Fold this sequence. Notes:
With about 350 residues, this protein is α/β, with parallel strands linked by helices. It folds into two domains: about 65-130, Immunoglobulin-like, CATH 2.60.40.1080; about 135-335, Aminopeptidase. Helices cover about 40% and strands about 25% of the residues. It is built from seven helices and 17 strands. The strands form five sheets. Strands 13-10-14-17-15-16 form a six-stranded mixed sheet, with helices on both faces. About 35% of the residues are buried. It binds zinc ion (ZN). Zinc ion binds next to loops. The site of zinc ion has 5 residues, from loops.
Amino acid sequence: MNKIKRYAVFFCLMFCLVLLGCTLPSYGKSEAPKAAKESVVTQETGAEDTDTDEEVSEEEEPLEFTRTKAKLKCGKAFRFKVNRDDVTWSVSNKKKAAISKNGKLRAKRYGKVKVIATSGDESVSFEVKLVPKKIVGIDPGHQIRGNNGTEPNGPGSSVMKTKVAGGTSGVSTRKPEYQLTLEIGLALKDELVKRGYKVVLTRDKNEVDITNVERAQKLNKSCDVAVRLHADGAASSVRGASVLYPSGNNPYVASLSADSKKLSECVISSYCTSTGIRNRGLSQRDDLTGTNWSTIPVALLEMGFMTNTADDNYMSSADGQAAMVTGIANGIDTYFGY
Ligand SMILES: [Zn+2]
């Protein structure tokens, strides 16, 4: 190939390239804007759709409570509300509280519970303090060993009495009184807590050394009433339950006499109804250290005679104990008007 031919081919190629170069841009100019426009429209439409979604969710406020209560007393109910209708309600502890499908919370046991509202992916919770109906003090009488030291049998009294007596024991079961009173005390606590009370026990084991004055003082601190649990001892034929309370002439707690009597009546009545144990009634006693040091209404329940075979066996049977606990708890409910 000579030089001229090579130039001719070169120029032809260049010419073709120039032509292509002009044609492509012109093609781009005529078509590209259309495509670009379409893509812009599509994007804008898409963007608009997204914006619309966001605007809708912005209009629907975040899930939040519109009606709450920070404290709720056991036995009471309160309806919680949120800013939505499509809500599922739940609670963090079903033993402590129940919640209905429309957000009505019912307090069962004292403590804390979280109310949870769920709507779609969103969930909010609110902590509620469940306040006990009342605080009940229970003193399971005696302890593993009596304490023969002495203490004043009332505030300011010069009369000294044994700190803790030894107690009686079961003629048939051979069970010591301190063990029986502890069994009933612990079961009574469980029952009262289930019913919405808070319970303070003077002791939850036998291996303690707590005087009668100290027991009263422990319950005085926070309780609304004190129930002292004991069992009797006498001749083997004697049976039945009684309850001891301070008289209106008591030098220390006369002002508590009326309420203590009411508490005693409520407890002995429902106790004997529940158990079928013979009702020996109420007795006024002003010589009991644990009663005289009380600053709250106080009843000492003699649950039955451990020296009587029938009473003794009954008080240690599972059915008997369940009935005893139900009876005492019913009496406390009646006293407080529940
Ligand atoms: Zn006793």
